[in-house]
Amino acid sequence: SKHGRGRVMLALVNRASLALVSFVASVAACSAVAPAARASADAPTAVATYAPALPRGVAERSGRCWTDSSVAARPDAFRCAMGDVIVDPCFSVSGHRGFVVCGANPATGAVGFPLRLDEPLPATTTPRPSRPWLLLLADGQACARFAGARPRVGGKFAEWYCASPATPSRTTLVTDVDRGAAWIATVHDTRGAHRVVVRRAWE
Predict the structure, then answer these.
(1) CB of 76 within 8 A of CB of 122?
(2) How far is residue 141's CA from residue 126's CA, in Å, rounded to a whole number?
(3) SS3 27
(4) How far apart are CA 155 and CA 166, in angstroms?
(5) What's the pLDDT score for residue 194?
(6) What distances in angstroms separate CA 113 from CA 11, 68, 101, 106, one per listed residue?
(7) pTM, whole model, 2 decimals?
(8) How do 99-102 and 113-117 pair as beta strands?
(9) How large a percentage of the chain has pLDDT more than 90?
(10) Angle at 52 between CA 47 and CA 53, to 5 degrees
(11) Biggest distance spanned by C-alpha atoms of the chain
(12) Which three-class secondary structure state does DSSP give residue 17?
């Protein structure tokens, strides 16, 4: 249908739902949160605003964007579809009307792909408070904000899911981020709940 009914695949969620359910069940009973490793006072979390660029040498695809992104709270971020495949967020690029960039991830270095628009971008809605949509933890895990249904863990809804280059099959969930000079994320994995310093964040 026009709004992408049918098989929906979220571009940023690439792990099987059954594995995630199993993971949540394995850590839900762990309510105590271990303290974060000591962070250097000279190393505050680096917060950046992602600046999209049209990738070169990457095959373009075509589709449409019909509403604001549910992941990135920015006026240039949109929720888009290629047939029945949903991608969120996609970003408009200055100087390139008719295109958005989808699938980019500055935490992992992924440049994404250009999406040629079949119709003009929608008008943005009421401004929303800024919030990070990507996190890079001090242990090397890159965390993306959920674009759809979120699991509950430790009595709260998870906001981000993470992956580590060393253990790509292990799912880690983040429920909270305390913002100070150095941000601290409450992380839930097979070891239970513990706190990890956020090295970088993108809004």
Answers:
(1) no
(2) 32
(3) helix
(4) 28
(5) 93
(6) 12, 19, 6, 13
(7) 0.77
(8) antiparallel
(9) 64
(10) 140
(11) 53
(12) helix
* Strand ranges (E), 4-141: 33-34, 46-48, 61-68, 77-82, 85-92, 99-102, 113-117, 134-137
Q: Which two three-digit tokens encode residue 188?
A: 């839930």
Centre a 10 Å sphere on the Cβ of residue 166 and count the other Cβ atoms it contains. 9
Q: Locate 194 and state its tokens.
A: 């513990």
pLDDT of the residue at 118: 97
Place of tokens 């960039």: 101
Q: How many Å apart are CA 196 and CA 173, to the nearest integer?
A: 12
The confidence band for 121, taking pLDDT boundaries of 50, 70 and 90, is very high
Amino acid of residue 118: D
Q: What is the dihedral of CA 85, 111, 118, 13, to 10 degrees?
A: 20
Own/partner pairs for 183-190, CB < 8 Å, 24+ apart? Answer: 183/45, 183/135, 184/36, 184/39, 185/135, 185/137, 185/143, 185/160, 186/33, 186/154, 187/137, 187/162, 188/27, 188/30, 188/153, 188/154, 188/158, 189/23, 189/27, 190/23, 190/26, 190/27
Binning the chain into helix, strand and coil, the percentages to the nearest 5 are 5, 40, 55
